[in-house]
Batch of 3 targets.
Target 1
Amino acid sequence: MKRLFNSKNHGVVDYLAVIILAVAPATLKFGGLGSTTAYSFAGVFLALSLCTAYSFGVVKRLSFAIHGMIDFYLSWILILFALFALRGNERIALVAVGACSFVAFLATDFTEPIETRRATTRKAA
């Protein structure tokens, strides 16, 4: 099945999610737990993106397929935590970000980008 997003599109979504999570607490006036949750997930998503072997990665230690698997679990953890532990704007915003992350997971083709396979093959040789 052909997916809508490739690794570059997914990278853009990843960094947008980081920005939204980092800005949401101040703009939506989150309380302590909501702010901590948003900033924590922003940091985790940023670290995941920086460590993934794709166009927007810097360290390139994680395969794009592993990135996808981690995205799947993180999106559900964020959704469920927000639903059961938060209220008001915090709940709505973080469930929305988690849901968007899950939709991005569903829309992305997580087969490794060709440039990643070539780089890995060269290093092994």
Target 2
Amino acid sequence: MSDLSHKASGAPFGTMEFLRIGIHTSISGSLEKAALKAAELGANTFQIFSSSPRMWRPSVPAKDDIVAMRRARERLDLRPLVIHVNYLVNLASLDPVIRERSITSFRGELERAAAIGAEYLVTHPGNYRGLAVDQAIAAFVTLRDKSKQSPALRDELREFVAKKIGALARPDDILFSADLPKTRSGKIMRRLLRDIAEGRALGDTTTLADPNVVASLRDEYEDKEG
């Protein structure tokens, strides 16, 4: 890992002043000890877990520990700090329980990274765990101006997602819709939209503000596929 902030100081490329050589250290003793261990082993950047990597329930770092680590980093020029996300996180899972836990856990990782002062967060999107390859990403898009719907816009949106998030996130299908089902639970809305995209019978729609929205979406999708 290279750090370009040394460029202004005039340090030539290839020197130890410019290079960033890192290591993963444990926070089991404290955040400060993780930083000190990295420096002791000759590193000038390092990676940590912000909590146990094999538990859903996170630990919360103490404010004093955060301050102590920040001081150690400044004193020892340890930068950037990288946090590796919990191993259990699987943002690609279609299992509603695992996905909900993963989203909650990932949000916690972001919050702890901001609190600790980490510059980077490493995560893995996860995997579909044996689901069919044709269960690709389908995106439902509501436009402010419905007249702008076009095949060209679909292609533009696919490429925008691929550029901003990555090629693996490029939607296989995009459906322009006038509205989306409104419910208190995002999990219920995702299930209904997945049922529509995969051509399955719709589940319970009694909690929706307007069940007709889902029926309309299904008809639109079937017309498009047909």
Target 3
Amino acid sequence: MLQIEVSSISVYTVIMFIEWVEEYGVGVESIDRQHKKFILILNKLSDALDEGTEDTALGEILDELVVYTDYHFATEEKILRQTHCEFYDEQVAEHRKLRKHLTELVMKSHKNRSEVSLELLHFMKDWLTKHLLQQDQKYSSCFIEHGIK
């Protein structure tokens, strides 16, 4: 929860769709920073839904999500390959599944933006939290042992 002081008298509370919690961290600053960016993108979509602007915002947010997903996955996969981490194949397979689903959602978004916005938001929240808490934790010690920051 983020509190914003608007004046010396009133404080508004903004409830984010997803908040970063330390349990999501893998102990590698550069990767954790990228994971936090995913949360920001999803919160942007949540805000658009709350404001009723998802029809105009979805295309831009989907584009940002797809581009950032490719960037992040390329970063993780490069480090996994360089460190000879045993979870490389498993991680790449998970990444492929998400890319495929995002591609399907992009195609579907041309027909029904509001429906896709909600589907994307809930799917990504579920996928991201599970992926951070389970999948990415597997490589954490490998990255740290190899001095990845």
